[in-house]
Amino acid sequence: MGLSGAYGRTDDDQSVRVIHSYLDAGGTLLDTGDFYGAGHNEQLIARALRHRNRDDVVLSVKFGAVLAPGRFPAGFDGRPAAVRNSLTYSLQRLGTDHVDIYRPARLDRSVPIEDTVGAIAELVDMGYVRHIGLSEVGAETIRRAGAVAPISDLQIEYSLLSRGIEDEILATCRELGIGITAYGVLSRGLIGGSGSNDGGRAIQPRFQGANREHNDALVARLQGMADAKGSSLAQLAIAWVAAQGDDIVPVVGPRRAEQVASMIGSTGITLDGDDLARIDALIPPGAARGDRYPAQFMADLDSER
Questions:
Q1: From 22, 36, 102, 293, the catalytic residue
Q2: Domains (ranges, CATH) in the chain?
């Protein structure tokens, strides 16, 4: 998403170098959405993979977000016909004959989740999709979806500043054998970022006024621990998410090639039980101020109900 203008202007040549740097370092998961840049991101990935082995990459694709001219959000469409139509266009833009994980970006409240997941299951049977995923849905929806077809993983925000899944959603996924791909592990740059409010950050509640001051102060509490570990704040935050379980994969979003090595460096950081307890004491669950999305987008999150 960050390579398609979500956080300010980007350069496609540089973005391709970012993807190549990641793949060359051993990365495999590429997460995208057909609405990232109104299809731009899928085309960018296709360009980056043009001379690569497709089987070396796991393509995770979100669909269902409806855009109006100007790329303004206009709802979500989870109808079976829309599922099939969306995948057809994604396969063309990505230049591939299948995607590895296909998931609705948000719950379409006008369509039973059983219908949406059932349509993806048909695409699995046809060979166009390998695995079914979900995104930002709550425990009840996860159970309903899992009763229709096997669910590989749930993509949901999870970080030191966003720990809501620990209340019920994480336990439900573990009960059902569903993994987590955790996005927002750096809280859109609040942790270890440049400090700018470029792009989508300008409307994020956690970046506004007193909320920003409070959240910056929270993050600063970690600096001493990061120094002791010989890591950056960003590396420590990524390592914390990874340390929550082998069933959790942090999704990171470098925008420059030099950031790739830094983020991958987080895999070399070990956090034991004492470290995790200390981090909890420094930043307790629920300590961040401000919702993780603006009010109109929070209303779209089944995971928050």
A1: 36
A2: 2-203+234-269 (3.20.20.100)
